[in-house]
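Record 1 of the preview.
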Amino acid sequence: MNGIVRNGKKRWLLSVVVMAVSLSGFTQVSQPNRFEKEQKRRFGDFHVVSLEEQGLALLRDKEKYEQGDRLWEFTQVDTLLAEVWTKELSVEPKFRLVGYDYRDKNLYYLFRAGETDMGDLKIVKLDPRDRQVLEFNYKPELAIQLSHFNIVGNQILLAGYVSRQPTVLLFNMETNQAKIVAGLLADNTEILDVRANINNTFNVMMTERQSKAKKRLILKTYDETGALLLDDMIEVDPEKTLLSGITSTLVRDELMLVGTWSEGIAKQASGIFTVLVDPYNEQKINYYDFGQLTHFFDYMTPKRAAKTKEKSDSRRKLGKIPDFRTNVMPVRLVETKDGFVFYTEAYYSSSISNNPNWNAANPYYNYPYSMYGFGSPYRYGYPYGTGYPYGGYPYGSGNTSSEIKMQMASIFVLSNNGELKTDHGFKLEDTKIPSAEQIADFIFTPSRVTILFSKENQIHFQVSQADGVQLINEKKEIQLTQASESTRPDSEDVATVRYWYKNILFVYGYQTIKNSEKGNRDVFYINKLKID
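->
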């Protein structure tokens, strides 16, 4: 008997050692490079854009003037975070930065004059390969409240609302001519997404807001000249309202639509929806409430999570819509060879905006995360889902929440036809930020999912296997330039994590560095994050 017990202990100890070794080598988060620039907090914040394997683009307002123009500092760093191009941009002081897009290896910044919907527009195009800068000026003939900014071929695509009706404008950079895209003006209709496809067509996704009549999800696809290629209408459950959405970008042959939904006129999300576009066959929207997910309630205490899930299950069995709702922002949709991956972040908001066009789950009326949110597609780059950052429109009136607590990063793995296969979740530790903005990001492979965010000068990361089971949940200090340096311990600045390319992300923010020899210094920094 003793011999059997001893052998059992040996086998158990061996399995623990093997598991520990395998997990330690499963995923490593390294920080091979760092960029620093001495910069006092809030003195001309940097806007950072991924240029994929061309590096990163940094832009900040220098708050200086020359010959009446406001000076902006543009810096390109390579994938080792070394400066390779610096350019001073002169822009009339009436213009403010409102969006950007990275397309076909070129970077575009959108500026708008003043605070009105009739403000002139300036587009600055930067070519990192030839180090060229071009400017285009457009004076809208209509008062358009902008919500989306994309580049499609040689056209600048501007979308928003004219007299509360959805409108899309195309401005040709070669001819300096603009036109309105036909077939969109309609009352009680809201834009959910406008997105360029990889073949220089673009999608416009809208939803009807009639309270008594049948509601429909509308998808229109156009070529770069604005000619209609696809016009599809999908019936929406009359008890449900679609709050937000993202379209795929034809990396795969299919067009997938995903987003959030709620019951009735509620402004917070009850769950996610998915639908595969197929105008020649019956199209059914898949609705998933949060109680059907395995990991969405992981930010709660186990007792509260179990109670919330049990209540949701009980209502669903009775044919009722579960009453759990929360604020959820859709962030990105990745197309893989096996299907799609939809990423969202949930948050608590203590107040909402008075803007009649804005709701808590719609990013296009919410300043910060629309800047990082919804213009350019994420390209398929199996196995890591490579892509480039979204464009957006950051400075419209939107969410004026007095407090935002980021709660949960959620990943939904979808099949080819949009059915939910599994979900992953990572608690964001109630990270407090001034207003709703994406703070985390992820790397997806068929065998593992890595989610990362930063808080209190640490990188928090979680690794889970394909079925959603958590493997690793760890923290790492954000590495500094010198081992002898340290950060101010009472610093509450929240850093931002963003996907870069392949298996690379980056984290950026502001730090006060303590150095016993050289004294303290305030810096803006970027650290490269490599996932192995």
